[in-house]
């Protein structure tokens, strides 16, 4: 039997002692039977000891099993000695009382007196073990409840701090960053031909990146604060809005889409952040002369799979393993892809890097699909045909055929 270590660092022997005690009681019955059978061959003791084993041997096996159970139970090892004291205390007290009774009112034969003493020892030990286990489990439950209460208090404190951080990011830090970005844009408009305008562009670009990071942090905080209450969300509408935002932000980008007329998935108001991060990454980390993004949706009975491909230089092998991790020190994709993974898994879906190489990368997002159109959703904004958004420098929206 594999024994657990005690809290003092030594071996916890109490379960093994209890197993040994129960086994010793069983062996005592067997040895007693053999010895008496040899001493009194003329008497048949089989029926007597079958009854004895049923009456005393089974409880003795119960003591042995109690030690086996205790070694694998969640009861803390510092309670094992207390359980052992209950067991041996019950044995000693119950046996002492009955030995006095045997001395005052002995049975007719030695065998009967021996069985009396043996039985009281077994039942005393078993009764004490039961009381000790009940007490040990009660202590364990009390400790678990205390730990849960402390954990709940810690979670509540974290929730309050997250709320404070969300408010701080929203009302203080983000406003300051927006002021910096706005002033940089005003100075660029006023001194656009000045050589220092390149530095202003750097300030504006980093301010915009900081705004994106702050927004991602806010979304993560909101995702941890809010309960997971999902509803049917029009995926086609979400993608359409994200593509319009992408075209507004990056006028040089070319976008090809193949999206069904109406697709509903189980999500919430944070779903757009999944695709805005993927689409922005497809352009921001794209070093080709003309960034190109392809968006398509494949629908099955259970899922909707969104594919977002680009014509960038791909993701290096060193970065692929930690691409969706929270540690941003080894990836130039920042917090965005971690947010994409967090939200996708929150909705019961997943995100993967399907392909990557020198000619581009393809990300896929799989989400649980809602097969029936919810009441109140007409799908008026759905794109029944593929859509090409923008040509270099033209700012046109062109709808293609099927």
What keyword list fits this structure?
single chain; 2 domains; 402 residues; Heat Shock Protein 90; 2C_sensor_his_kinase; nucleotide-binding; 13% strand; EC 2.7.13.3; nine-stranded mixed sheet; 9 helices
Describe this structure in words.
- Mean pLDDT is 80; it is low at 5-10, 328-333 and 379-402.
- The protein has 402 residues and is α+β, with helices and mostly antiparallel strands.
- α3 (80-104) packs antiparallel against α4 and α5 runs parallel beside α9 (336-346).
- The protein folds into two domains: 1-226, no CATH class; 230-399, Histidine kinase-like ATPase, C-terminal domain (Heat Shock Protein 90).
- The chain is 58% helix and 13% strand.
- Strands 1, 2, 3, 4, 5, 6, 7, 8 and 9 form a nine-stranded mixed β-sheet that branches.
- A hairpin with a 7-residue loop joins β8 (387-389) and β9.
- The chain has nine helices and nine strands.
- The two termini are 70 Å apart.
């Amino acid at each position: 039997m594999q024994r657990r270590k005690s809290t003092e660092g030594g071996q916890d022997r109490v379960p093994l002692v209890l197993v040994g005690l129960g086994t010793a009681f069983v062996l005592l019955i067997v040895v007693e039977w053999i010895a008496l059978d040899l001493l009194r061959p003329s008497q048949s003791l089989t029926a007597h000891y079958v009854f004895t084993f049923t009456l005393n041997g089974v409880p003795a096996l119960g003591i042995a099993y109690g030690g086996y159970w205790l070694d694998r139970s969640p009861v803390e090892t510092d309670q094992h000695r207390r359980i052992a004291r209950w067991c041996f205390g019950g044995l000693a007290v119950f046996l002492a009382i009955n030995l006095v009774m045997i001395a005052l009112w002995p049975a007719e034969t030695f065998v009967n007196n021996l069985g009396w003493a043996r039985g009281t020892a077994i039942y005393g030990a078993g009764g004490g073990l039961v009381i000790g286990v009940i007490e040990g489990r009660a202590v364990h439950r009390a400790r678990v409840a205390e730990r849960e209460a402390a954990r709940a208090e810690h979670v509540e404190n974290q929730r309050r701090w997250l709320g404070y951080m969300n408010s701080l990011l929203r009302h203080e830090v983000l406003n300051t960053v927006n002021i910096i970005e706005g002033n940089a844009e005003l100075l660029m408009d006023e001194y656009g031909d000045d050589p220092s305008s390149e530095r202003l562009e750097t300030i504006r670009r980093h301010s915009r990146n900081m705004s994106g990071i702050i927004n991602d942090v806010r979304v993560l905080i909101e995702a941890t604060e809010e309960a997971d209450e999902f509803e049917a969300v029009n995926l086609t509408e979400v993608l359409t809005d994200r593509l319009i935002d992408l075209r507004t932000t990056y006028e040089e980008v070319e976008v090809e889409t193949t999206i069904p007329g109406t697709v509903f998935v189980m999500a919430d108001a944070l779903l757009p952040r999944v695709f805005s991060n993927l689409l922005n990454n497809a352009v921001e980390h794209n070093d080709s002369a003309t960034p190109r993004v392809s968006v398509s949706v494949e629908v099955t009975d259970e899922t909707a799979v969104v594919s977002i491909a680009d014509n960038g230089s791909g993701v290096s092998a060193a970065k692929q393993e930690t691409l969706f991790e929270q540690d941003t020190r080894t990836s130039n994709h920042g917090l965005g892809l971690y947010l994409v993974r967090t939200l996708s898994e929150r909705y019961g879906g997943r995100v993967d890097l399907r392909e990557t190489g020198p000619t581009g990368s393809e990300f896929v997002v799989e989400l649980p699909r809602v097969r029936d159109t919810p009441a109140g959703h007409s799908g008026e904004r759905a794109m029944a045909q593929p859509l090409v958004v923008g040509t270099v420098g033209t700012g046109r929206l062109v709808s293609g055929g099927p």
